[in-house]
Specification:
Layout: H1 2-12, E1 16-20, H2 25-40, E2 44-50, E3 65-69, H3 82-108, E4 117-121, H4 126-133, E5 137-142, H5 146-157, E6 168-169, E7 177-178, H6 184-187, H7 193-200, E8 211-214, H8 218-221
Parallel strand pairs: 1-2, 1-4, 2-3, 4-5, 5-8
Antiparallel strand pairs: 6-7
Helix pairs in contact: 3-4, 5-7
């Protein structure tokens, strides 16, 4: 009888997915919508953001748990200028890695709360390393549209050299692009090289993720081909 009750309890346990979102509304929204879709399929969701940004979250459904980690700036948010943003990201990598590991360890102490999968914003490549330390399935989530993602990916591969010296561009799996079609951070690379490096670095270890998820639909990005 006791063994039967244990089997029933194990069968009733839902898969638990931890969703780590970058602390900006344009990143929180698509990951929250994705979380709702997962929840609709029976997945238990814990949404994770920074301690400071959690104060801005007003519309998280009560069925989605909310946890926070430290970015090293618990009394303030991400700075706007490039020099300060680099310091912020470097600090976030250091403190956030440790804080995320502590959260996974805390949740892992309970069989019911154990995390089965980490879905992390592509701006946090370090989150993949943390998830793998806990032998947890990891999925990277790209919040920007596929054309922009593809352009940054080609920068990462070295297929697109900056500063830009052309006015027309032919890149694999993309339609022909004009200079005005390019993301602004390619056009301002000389003045602010850090931002483009930041966007390209999101692909640094993406090949090691178990899943790559994209915030798009066919009608929006139908000219972008899978390669």
């Amino acid at each position: 009888m006791e063994e039967m009750e244990k089997k029933k309890k194990n069968m009733a346990r839902r898969a638990h997915c931890l969703v780590l979102a970058y602390p900006l509304q344009g990143h929180i929204n698509p990951m929250l919508q994705f979380s709702k879709l997962l929840e609709h399929e029976g997945v238990r969701i814990t949404l994770v953001t920074t301690r400071f940004f959690s104060n801005n979250l007003k519309r998280v459904p009560p069925s989605i748990a909310l946890e926070t980690i430290s970015d090293g700036f618990d009394l303030g948010g991400p700075p706007q200028d490039a020099d300060s943003h680099k310091a912020y990201i470097d600090r976030f990598c250091e403190v956030g890695s440790e804080s995320l590991a502590e959260l996974l360890e805390k949740l892992g102490r309970s069989k019911d709360d154990h995390v089965d999968c980490v879905v992390y914003d592509s701006f946090f490549p370090w989150a993949l390393d943390v998830a793998k330390r806990f032998e947890t399935v990891a999925a990277v989530f790209l919040t920007q549209n596929m054309t922009v993602n593809s352009i940054y990916y080609h920068v990462h591969l070295g297929n697109l050299q900056v500063p830009l010296t052309q006015h027309e561009f032919s890149l694999p799996a993309l339609p022909k692009l004009q200079l005005q079609d390019m993301p602004s951070f390619l056009l301002t690379y000389v003045e602010h090289p850090y931002y483009l490096d930041f966007f390209a670095d999101q692909f640094s270890n993406m090949d090691k993720a178990d899943w790559v998820l994209c915030n798009t639909f066919y009608e929006l990005d139908k000219e972008v081909r899978v390669i």
